[in-house]
Amino acid sequence: MLVEVLSQFTLANDQEQSAQAIFSSLHLWCVRNDSFTF
Description:
The protein contains two helices and no strands. It is an all-alpha fold. Keywords: Plasmid.
């Protein structure tokens, strides 16, 4: 799952979009897994 977050970070053009992509990916991942463990 971290790979998806990192790839979204790489694909995002500017820093603000990158941060938003990371946080939304992390949020969805946490919701799906009901935990905050990597």
